[in-house]
Specification:
Elements: H1 2-21, E1 24-26, H2 28-38, H3 40-55, H4 58-61, E2 66-75, E3 79-93, H5 97-163, H6 169-203, E4 213-215, H7 228-238, H8 240-260, E5 266-280, E6 286-298, H9 306-372, H10 378-412
Parallel strand pairs: 1-4
Antiparallel strand pairs: 2-3, 3-5, 5-6
Helix pairs in contact: 1-6, 2-5, 3-5, 5-6, 5-8, 5-10, 7-9, 8-9, 9-10
């Protein structure tokens, strides 16, 4: 029975190892750079930023004059007329509303840049998390494969002793059950590794999501030198969500300025040059050619109190934007506190589990030697084996959790782009 279960599993693991040998090696930085270049969401948000940049022009705000060229023909049974002309119009003053529009467009351009940065930071956090998750899942696969090899050795020893009559069939069946359980765990973990790898390829927008990707790092090393006070200072200065909230307050202030512009008169200039010709029956055509110009000054005396309503609403909107900024700051403070607590706790767990792993490895080494000498039962060996696997798993979980906390803290403080420059 062992032969039929073991051979397909070994073939699968051998094929996996062969594929691994052919993989392209990626560092975290290379994964991020590839994703920033190819990822569809990032490309879309960058295009949206370009649109906001294209919109931030004096002409779009109304600061420049407009020119129109027109022509026409009309007629009746008795007369006909044709005309062609060039018209130029320009709003010289509208209570500083145009200037407020232009300033608002520039602020929206800045918001477009911040939104792009926010999307990039979210992407770096996601791809970094998946990069380290793939490392963790491959580490777990190695641990499970090592456990499977130990179970295979135990099964071999039990079979030999069973055939010479020194072990019972119950011992053989228990060893076979444990070996099968470990084989199942390895097969399931292969699926987990596959999902993580395809997700990483998806984030990098690779043409083939099943593309073999070999990571340069084979272990996770959390940054143990983070400082809470420095992280919070950076958060207040460079957190992109907070910067967006502050920019929204500025945009709302410009909306109020635009609403107040209706309290002032407006001045518009227009000029043109045209040619008009008309015919009436058999008479000679009547022609008119030359320039025309005009000046319009106006002031709204009453509009149903809409000006006051718009200005009151604009002031309320400024207050709301400021309240949202304050709420966000409090939320960031809460997130920072929680993430820092989790970071310190997982860091302590990581150090503790490293010590536990050393003890579990020594315990298993003694157990396997005693088992080979026949001084330990299969159940006791299995307990030592499970204890070692659990210690390896707890250490892996602790270091991965610590790394995720590190990623969250760096994103909160606006430093997640540091992963693009790991040497620094």
């Amino acid at each position: 029975m062992k032969r039929y279960i073991c051979i397909p599993l070994l073939a699968l693991l051998t094929a996996t190892a062969t594929a691994t040998a052919q993989e392209t090696v990626y560092t975290l930085r290379q994964c991020i750079e590839t994703g920033l270049e190819r990822n569809y969401s990032i490309r879309i948000v960058r295009n949206e930023q370009i649109i906001s940049e294209n919109n931030a022009t004096p002409g779009n705000a109304g600061l420049l004059p407009s020119a129109d060229l027109s022509g026409g023909f009309s007629g009746t049974d008795d007369a006909e007329a044709a005309n062609v002309g060039l018209t130029v119009s320009w709003t010289v003053f509208d209570g500083f509303g145009i200037q407020a529009d232009y300033a608002r467009l520039k602020e929206l351009r800045n918001l477009g840049e911040l939104n792009t940065r926010m999307a990039i930071e979210d992407f770096i956090a996601n791809i970094s998390g998946e990069y380290y998750n793939l490392i963790r899942q491959r580490t777990r696969l190695r641990n499970l494969t090592s456990t499977l090899s130990l179970s295979r050795e135990r099964l071999r020893i039990v079979e030999e002793r069973y055939f010479i009559g020194s072990m019972s069939r119950l011992d053989l069946q228990q060893a076979q059950v444990d070996f099968n359980a470990d084989s199942s765990a390895v097969l399931n973990q292969l699926e987990v590794v596959h999902r993580s790898r395809t997700h990483l390829n998806q984030l990098m927008a690779m043409d083939n999501v099943e593309n073999a990707v070999m990571l340069k790092d084979s272990a996770i090393y959390p940054n143990v030198f983070l400082d809470e006070a420095e992280l919070w200072r950076r958060t207040m200065d460079t957190n992109v969500s907070l910067m967006v909230a502050r920019k929204n307050v500025s945009v709302s202030s410009l909306d109020l300025k635009k609403a107040r512009s209706r309290n002032y008169p407006y001045l518009r200039l227009n000029a043109g040059y045209g040619y008009t010709v008309g015919w009436a029956g058999m008479s000679n055509p009547q022609e008119n050619i030359g320039p025309n110009y005009g000046l319009t000054i106006g002031f709204n005396l009453f509009d149903g109190f809409n000006k006051k309503r718009e200005q009151r609403n604009a002031r309320i909107n400024i207050e709301n934007r400021e309240l949202l900024r304050q709420e966000l700051e409090l939320s960031l403070r809460t997130d920072m506190s929680n993430q820092w607590m989790a970071y310190e706790n997982n860091l302590n767990l990581w150090n503790l589990e490293k010590e536990n792993l050393v003890a579990a490895q020594e315990n298993f080494r003694i157990a396997i030697e005693r088992y080979r000498l026949g001084d330990l039962s299969g159940i006791q060996l299995r307990e030592a084996q499970n204890s070692l696997l659990n210690a390896e798993e707890r250490q892996s979980i602790a270091e991965f959790a610590t790394k995720l906390c590190e990623i969250s803290l760096l994103q909160l403080s606006g430093q997640i782009s540091n992963y693009l420059n790991p040497e620094e």
